[in-house]
Amino acid sequence: MPAPGGPGPFRLGFLTHVHGRGRPAGAVYRDLVELFVAGEELGFDGGWLAQHHFSPDYGRLPSPLLLLAAAAQATRRIDLGTAVVVLPLEDPIRLAEDAAVLDALSGGRLQLGLGTGGPSAPAFGAFDRDVARRRELFDEARGRLRELLAGESIAGTDGLRLHPPAPTLTSRFWDSTTSVDGARAAARAGDGLLLGIGPAGSAQRPLADVYLAAHHAAGRAPAGARLAVSHGVFPGPDRLAARVDLAPDIARFRPWLGNFGFPADLDDGAALDAMNVHHGPVGVVIHSLATNPVGPAAVSYFIAAVQGETGAAADLDATLRRMELIATEIAPALGWRPAAGPVPDPPTAADPPTAADPPTAADPPTPAGLGTPAGLGTPAELEARAALERNR
Length: 392
Fold this sequence. Notes:
- This protein is of the alpha/beta class.
- It has one domain (11-390): Luciferase-like domain (TIM Barrel, Alpha-Beta Barrel).
- It has helices at residues 25-42, 64-74, 92-106, 134-149, 180-189, 200-217, 239-245, 247-257, 268-274, 282-290, 311-314, 316-333, 379-390, and strands at residues 11-16, 46-49, 79-86, 110-115, 173-176, 192-195, 227-235, 277-280, 301-305.
- GO terms for molecular function: oxidoreductase activity, acting on paired donors, with incorporation or reduction of molecular oxygen.
């Protein structure tokens, strides 16, 4: 793994779903590279991109690894993450090849977030995939991807193997899920758990607990557990300003809130809270994050969603100002410290970095500076939950 951003208790990332309604795609993508450069200069540990297919407005990036390759050439330290690649729609061999090339190009900075594609259900038909089998397709593809990256020979061939090899990349898999079974499967596979959808207290925290219990039940060291969460962070002069800027996002996600029992007439402020969007003056945002059950104190990687669909929420300059407030005021108040010292020179093409020996399945590595995520249970509590897992 690349060196951590600093001695703080969690790593800090930013996320964009890549909007830019009405703007040329090339301009939108060039702005993304600028976000990565700015994020690195501000000390962010990672930048993460979402994948969306066939979308001209909401989520305009179908090929995140290509964009991350461009960002890799403009940066030297920052993690390059996907949140997420819709795995059931991918050919595992092609994804493995692209991911391995990007990881080599970036010096081992890829963080590969993978999802089953619930929000992408309308796209499954275009890829000739059965959306009803998306969990099964995910499990099959993830297993194949793991085998390919580990260097196993490809079935049906005379010993062909993936090139370039990327044996350590599987220790940077992150599974995104909204189900208990998915959280348990992530832990058993040795993957990280990436939480992004669902109310923090009633949906995300229980999944985190299940993941940690299953991780412990599998006999893995507590320090190997990797929990990440993506929440919106929109500091501003007041909460009303954020509601105005994020009105299109609220309208888009309001029907989704009904899946979690929220009433259709929920006011905009409460809707943003339910959507895990921490908004308002800096002090209000800090308090909101500090008291959240899956906030920065409870996870090993906190990823701040920093862009909305349109207007000021999507504007590049406004986004950069939000990122600056997050990196200079909000995250430090929660214990994070930015990367210090000069950004290292990139590896030369003639002498790329050598991957370390792959981790053992019994004890996957954790980035230096991370321990057991705080706030999710004492060792005794973890052992009790693990005992329940072993008895399932």
